[in-house]
TrEMBL record:
Protein name stated in the entry: Tyrosine-protein phosphatase non-receptor type
PROSITE patterns: SH2, TYR_PHOSPHATASE_1, TYR_PHOSPHATASE_2, TYR_PHOSPHATASE_PTP
InterPro entries in alphabetical order: Prot-tyrosine_phosphatase-like, PTP_cat, SH2, SH2_dom_sf, Tyr_Pase_AS, Tyr_Pase_cat, Tyr_Pase_dom, Tyr_Pase_non-rcpt_typ-6/11
Residues that hold substrate according to the record: D417, Q498
Source organism (scientific name): Branchiostoma floridae
Positions of the catalytic residues: C451 (phosphocysteine intermediate)
Length: 613
């Protein structure tokens, strides 16, 4: 799971229930200190309309649930029962599922706060990427609720414990380093010691010179992070945090740019590359299979598979990032579409921009058909929308009995020749439509995305889609890392997301999405006391469980602590049969114009696409 932000150091059982019912969904959970047994902890889990509290024992040697598996840390215990969903059960055998961590609010919006990372991870990061005087603040793993100031001094890392003392749940408390002056906030403490360096008992002076900033954030706090990134950089005048993060990304790619691109550089393949220096990595490139073995390098096409990070064990959503077609590569392009069983193509460039050809037209005129190698393409229909054109194409392979395939060609036309769109809503609506189509086609292959070079706009569209899918799956309280996501994409195709403007646009698009979803949930969820009128709606939007399994919450939360079993798993429930409905037609825009959205006091309910049952 990799996160400890599910730990809430200063809330009571009643406050935990209120949080889980206000912000959570079925399967949301948090951990907190036990009020009745100091030193122990409590795991609070929302189960449909009720909250179950599970005691966690801390013996001083290990953590356990008063029986069952034993763990060295609270984080390991929670991670175990999160990853092994069928092992935490009540005495009657009913499973208690830990699905969605309900994250606590960060104590500061400062970028030097890294949340839950361990001391070893802090040391590794600052030794690899920092310099003497670099510092960060993180949560203490040995003393939940306290913090640690980690500083690089003389090429080693010094860790200073920061105590956080609170008199009550309503009190923000004071921060100190074990003596001396007390501060109202972590920011005040850090600012003080930046001006007044600490001295270790060994005599080493601990200078806080430059912050080592984090890029991982809680998705719901993206507005605060964007505000921080818009501030001027104190070291580089006139440069904001967006520049700093993007510049770091560029430097990292230079250091790691050792992957082979030999195939694209072969003389036989030079005419297949739109730009001679923008070549696919050999390791992740798409290789054509139905080829003439007598033609040298016939399997080559300038395209790479792109997969999201961190979804091992699951069927990952896959993309193919490729360049705009050249006259000599159109046949190979269609060969790839057929080979990969692609049904949705996303084109993010016009055919000609600023007088230069960006992509050769690779589809026939409406109502006509044309052969591209062994594939016959028939243009069935073309529909124009304000920001894009949708073409429906039928592809048939000559000489085979395979049935024809329908390909949906989404051609985005609202990207300006210079810069990025002024309103991210047009891109978000476009991605909403392409994903709706992709999700309704069974056994569909990778979505093909291209611009001209296949890295700038292509990378921007793909990374936005990856982040939005993460939020959809894990909810608005999940952790996202835009910089790291792009860095991972660049290990599969170089140069993905080309400019600082595109990098900033990713943040703005994700922020607009979160703002929209939050307003949709707020508009649909009426909360007189604990009367939740639309749990289904918020679950579908924010990544909850199957809404058919959510019961309306008529009753109060359960006050007692139920008995818990951690024995062998019970038999799984039989899987419900699924039928595939017709794909809905494009609806009214889900995402409003940013300006209009912020002017409105009453948020208009956008449409919600129905999922197959």
């Amino acid at each position: 799971m990799g996160s400890r932000r599910w730990f809430h150091p200063n809330i009571s059982g009643i406050e935990a229930e209120q949080l889980l019912l206000d912000r959570g969904m079925d399967g949301s959970f948090l951990a907190r200190p036990s009020k009745s047994q100091p030193g122990d902890f409590t795991l609070s889990v929302r189960r449909q309309s009720e909250v179950t509290h599970i005691k966690i024992q801390n013996t001083g040697d290990f953590y356990d649930l008063y029986g069952g598996e034993k763990f060295a840390t609270l984080a390991e215990l929670v991670e175990h029962y999160t990853q092994n969903q069928n092992q935490l059960r009540e005495k009657n055998g009913e499973i208690i599922e830990l699905k969605f961590p309900l994250n606590s609010a960060d104590p500061t919006t400062e970028r030097w706060f890294h949340g839950h990372i361990s001391g070893k991870e802090a040391e590794r990061l600052m030794m690899e990427q920092g310099k003497n005087g670099s510092f960060l603040v993180r949560e203490s793993q040995s003393k939940p609720g306290d913090f640690v100031l980690s500083v690089r001094c003389n090429d080693k890392i010094t860790h200073v414990m920061i105590r956080h003392q609170k008199l009550s749940a309503l009190d923000d408390g004071k921060y100190d380093v074990g003596g001396g002056e007390k501060f109202d906030s972590l920011t005040d403490l850090v600012e003080h010691y930046k001006k007044n360096p600490m001295v270790e008992t060994s005599g080493t002076v601990v200078h806080l010179k430059q912050p080592f900033n984090a890029t991982r954030i809680n998705a719901s706090s993206i507005e605060d992070r964007v505000k921080e990134l818009q501030k001027d950089n104190p070291v580089h005048e006139g440069k904001a945090g967006f520049w700093e993060e993007f510049e770091f990304l560029q430097q990292q790619e230079c250091r790691a740019d050792t992957r082979s691109r030999k195939e694209g550089a072969r003389p036989e393949n030079k005419t297949k590359n739109r730009y001679k220096n923008i070549l696919p990595f050999d390791e992740t490139r798409v290789k054509l299979k139905d080829i003439d073995v007598n033609v040298p390098c016939a399997e080559y096409i300038n395209a790479n598979y792109v997969l999201p990070d961190g979804e091992d064990g699951e069927r990952k959503k896959q993309y193919i990032a490729t360049q705009g077609c050249l006259p000599a590569t159109v046949n190979d392009y269609w060969k790839m579409i057929w080979q990969e069983n692609t049904r949705v193509i996303v084109m993010t460039t016009k055919e000609v921009e600023r007088g230069k050809n960006k992509c050769t037209r690779y589809w026939p005129e409406p109502g006509t058909k044309k052969s591209y190698g062994t594939l016959l393409i028939r243009h069935l229909s073309e529909t124009n929308f304000p920001d894009y054109t949708l073409r429906e194409l039928e592809v048939t392979k000559e000489g085979e009995n395979n049935p024809p395939r329908t390909i949906y060609h989404y051609h985005f036309k609202a990207w300006p020749d210079h810069g990025v769109p002024g309103d991210p809503g047009c891109v978000l609506n476009f991605l909403h439509e392409t994903n709706t189509k992709q999700e309704y086609i069974p056994d569909v292959g990778p979505m093909v995305v291209h611009c001209s070079a296949g890295i700038g706009r292509t990378g921007t569209f793909i990374v936005i889609d990856i982040i939005l899918n993460l939020i959809k799956k894990f909810g608005l309280d999940c952790e996202i890392d835009i910089q790291k996501t792009i860095q991972h994409m660049r290990t599969q195709r170089s140069g993905m997301v080309q400019t600082e403007a595109q990098y900033k646009f990713v943040y703005m698009a994700v922020q607009h999405h979160i703002e929209t979803v939050s307003k949709r949930i707020a508009a649909q969820t009426k909360v007189p006391g604990r009367d939740y009128t639309n749990i289904k709606y918020s679950n579908e939007d924010a990544g909850g469980m199957d809404p058919r399994l959510v019961k309306p919450p008529p009753g109060p939360t359960s006050p007692a602590i139920p008995p818990v079993s951690t024995g062998p798993p019970t038999a799984p429930r039989p899987e419900q049969s699924k039928t595939l409905p017709q794909t809905p037609e494009p609806e009214k825009p889900v995402y409003e114009n940013v300006g209009k959205l912020r002017e409105k006091q009453n948020f208009r309910e956008p449409p919600v696409p129905k999922k197959p049952t």
